[in-house]
Structures are given as C-alpha cells and as structure tokens.
Design brief:
Its main location: cytoplasm. The protein is an alpha+beta fold and 367 residues long. The protein is 29% helix and 26% strand. The protein has ten helices and 15 strands. The strands form four sheets. The protein has a seven-stranded mixed sheet. A four-stranded mixed sheet has the order 3-6-4-5, covered by helices on one side. A hairpin with a 4-residue loop joins strand 8 and strand 9. The protein is globular and about 65 Å long.
Length: 367
Amino acid sequence: MTGPSNSYAQAGVDTAAGDLAVELMKSAVTRTHGPEVLGGVGGFAGLFDVSFLTGFSRPLLATSTDGVGTKVAIAQALDKHDTIGQDLVGMVVDDIVVVGAKPLFMTDYIACGKVVPERIAAIVGGIAAACAATGTALVGGETAEHPGLLGPDDYDVAGAAVGAVEADAVLGPERVEHGDVVVAIASSGLHSNGFSLVRHILSTRGIGYGDTSAELGGVVGEVLLEPTRLYTAPLLRVIDDLPGAVHALSHITGGGIAANLARVLPRGSWVELDRSTWSPQPVFRVLAELGGISLADTEGTWNLGVGMIAVVAQGAASSVTHALTAAGLPAWVAGRVTVGEHELSGFEQGAKGVDGGAVRLVGDFAG
C-alpha cells in the first residue's frame, strides 16, 4: 500500500533536512553564547538575561533589521556561501553601534527553495563567526523551505539584532558641533549595497561571475563576495577609551556617502568631504569603467571605499584615527562640520525621512 499522495515531503518540504541543518550549525551558534544566553539552540524563542541593565541609569534598547540584497545571487552562482553571513551581521549590527549601543543578541531568517543542510550550515556559520567578532550572541533563527516560490538553489537571508546604551551616551546629531572633524573609515569593498547595478553592468558586458579578470585581480564573483567589514568592536573600544571624542557615527549603506552622513548631522550644518583624501578600491573603478560611467555617477549607490564615518571633537581627531587604524580600520580626516548659512546647491540634505544636515563631495579622488 502506498503512502498518501499529498504528504508534506511530496509537496517539496524536507523536515529531516532542516533538522540536519540545525545539527550542523549548532556548534557554531553555541560559540557565540555567553552566560547571558539561556536555553541553548532549538527553542521557540531565544532567551537573554538582561539583569545587567539594572546597573544603567536609564537603559535604552537599540534595534535594527536588514538583509544582504542581491549579493546573494553571486553566492548562489558560485555555490560559495560562507561569507554572506558576515555581510548580514555587518548590515545589522553596525547600524546599532551608530547610536553608541553595544549589540547584545541577534536572530536570523533564511528562506530557501530547498534545504541543503551543508549550504544552510555554511551561511549560519558565517553569521555566527561575525556575531562572535562583534560580541553579539546568536540566540535563534529560522530556516523556511518555500518550494514552488523559490528555486531549489535560491535563498534569501535577513536578520535582526538588539543592543543597549545609556540614554545620556547616545550618539547623534544633538552632539555634533561647529568645527567637529569628519573621519572616514575604509570599507573592504562593495559591502552589501548596489549589487543590482553591479549585476546589471556585468550582464550588459557579458561577464560571468566565474570569469577571471586581470583588472579585478581574480575571479569576478570571488572579488565581489569580499565580505562587509565589521566596525562594531573597534568603534566600541574607541568610544570607551576616548570618552566624549565621538559625537556621531554614520554607516555608509544604501544611498552612498553624502546622504548617509547628512542623516547624522544637525539641521543648519554642512560638510564638504574632500575626495582627494582617499582612493576608491579597484573594484569600484573597474566596474564604473565597464559600465561607461564615472565614479561620481555612482556616489549615490556605492560606498566608494568609505564604510563608516565618525564625527569627532576637534581635539580628538588624531587619537581617533590612530586608534582605529591600529585596530585594522584605516581612517583619515576627510572634512569638517560647519554650522551656519551656506549656499546648498549640489548638497545632499538628509535622507530616508531625516531632515538633517547637508553634505557634498568635492575635488577629485586620489589616484
């Protein structure tokens, strides 16, 4: 006698594969757990002991959620999934440090057409490694199999995290003053934004992700999969070691440098960022040339070599840049904040609903 024709397995969902994926990822996830995490892996909800918040005068929770975008298409094309998790953590956790908060815990969500345990474990392994590097506990997640909606090799990832900060230590526009120094902090490459443009350029030129490019210095897809740089731990150390030095932080993600910096500046302030203080990595130059566009044309899409910006007190710029560079985050002075009247044609003025300051890039990039 045959089994039922309308079973879950015949509908394309393999619960056994999901269980195996959990077993394969369990050790990597557990390594992110400190004594604050209760219950281990596999519960309906993750538990995190926040008793330490009783020592705060006025604790605030910070939260952020994000995904990786169409960069996952490149990971899928190369069947290389061990870096995309770091991209996810960078996009989520590095938004939390922008307000001066320490990340506490994170959860992830993976939707796929078919659960391939080793693939899911590679993705989560990357998430866990990046969580450990940023001091974030990975307390839970979900893998959902969506046959018929996604192809067998298709997936998408998303995550959310929670952090904590003292109310009187929150960073942002309220702390920024006339004369503050704008410190640019180097990116590792494209990070996780603007890949729809990247994919369009390569498709238009007939370039495959598996092709080798002398200009890019390797296999195209592998160069593009360079993971997002993680800023949280070094920035938190600078904030702790140099009290009052950092007034605001801006994570350079979708929208580019000027728009994201404008979000953390007060109304009535403006900044001119000097392009000559840095040289965008070859990946930006090569892609722009392939697309027949200038680097300036991409400033609202790619980070062009700047992944985070710190707005710091005038007397602290040298200390901050030295500390960040020593921690493996190359940093340099790229501009200053001015508060006052100015002709603002050509400036980006706030973004994503924030009525902030005004920013524009000036000069030519260094060679």
